[in-house]
Amino acid sequence: MLVSLGTTCKNMNSKTNSAKFAFYYLLGLVALIFTAQSTGMIIFQIINKYIRDVINEYSAIYSDDAMKFAISAIVIAAPIYYVMKSLIMKNLKSGELEKDSQIRKWLSYLVILVSSVVMIGWLIGTINGFLNGELSLKFFLKALVAIVIAAIVFSFYFYDIRRKNAELGVDKIIKFYFYGSLLLIVVSFFASLFVVESPMETRKRKMDERVVNVFSNLNSAVNRFFSEKQKLPESLDDLTKEYSYLQERDLQDPIENKKIEYKIIGDDKYALCALFRTSNKDNENTDPFLYKGIWIHDAGYQCIEQKVTILPKGSFADPINDPSLMK
């Protein structure tokens, strides 16, 4: 009688806590995906940084933004995953979560399914990069990273769902997975700190990019002026007099609030000068489509020379009829 009553109470308690266990598993699943993906992303970016491929100028290159996202994701997601997994193990040991319960089986296999889909997509992307000409060494290392992370996730959950003594909580193999995966995440995290750009450097670089953007807009205006009048403007003020869409603020360093210095060097050559806080000569974060080879500078007060480009007649956009050019 007492055994029957205890079994009934245990079943009722398990059903009552189903929502709680579902929450643990689903939140753990989301955190696992972010953690696994971010760990792989960090290693991928380290590979991209230190193994250069001369034929891939715009793809499969190091991305500081991707590295920063991965670091942010690990800082938040990894602790959540390990806390959720610890709570699940604790409830297994206490008997609140039965090792043969349907919710444990269904959600464990759901974790395996979703993780499989994510890892398959990851491997497809890696192979696609190789087929598009990525260096064989980079492909091999990236494929190895993806396979190792996938193997850790799948083997752990397959072992956990099938082990017969799950009610005992954490065993030696579970501890091995716990400390092994934690070591991989911690090593990846600290390795990323030696590679990623610091927040202060990022701020300085973005300040310089705003100055370069002003340079680029002025360069377009000078090219237009030269194409129309066959001469360089005497000063930047000539541009504001000629083109109503340019204002006084468009001639200034947006950070220092000082007027950009303009120098005429030759009949069709000029220079724009301003203060830069960083050098972009070897900067992988510089936009290659806009700035590469055009606005290269060192740190400090720099004058960047330009040769005017004569624009085809009739190619000038009218800012009055084209609202996209108006400030």
Trace the largest sheet across and list its strands.
1-2-3
Strand content: 5-15%
Radius of gyration: 29 Å
Mind summarizing the main beta sheet? 3 strands, antiparallel
Number of helices: 8
State the order of secondary-structure elements, H for helix, E for strand: HHHHHHHHEEE
Q: How many structural domains does the protein architecture include?
A: 2
Q: What is the SS-derived class? A: mainly alpha
Q: Between the first and last Cα atoms, what is the distance in angstroms?
A: 83 Å
Share of helix, binned? 55-70%
How many beta strands in the DSSP annotation?
3
Overall pLDDT level = 81
Give the CA-based shape: elongated
Give the uncertain stretches in residue-range form: 1-12, 317-327
How does this model look, in words?
The chain is mainly α. The chain has 2 domains: 2-193, no CATH class; 199-325, no CATH class. The protein has helices spanning 2-16, 18-50, 64-94, 102-131, 136-162, 172-193, 199-229, 237-242; strands at residues 261-264, 269-276, 300-307. A 3-stranded antiparallel beta sheet has the order 1-2-3, with helices on one face. A hairpin with a 4-residue loop joins strand 1 and strand 2.
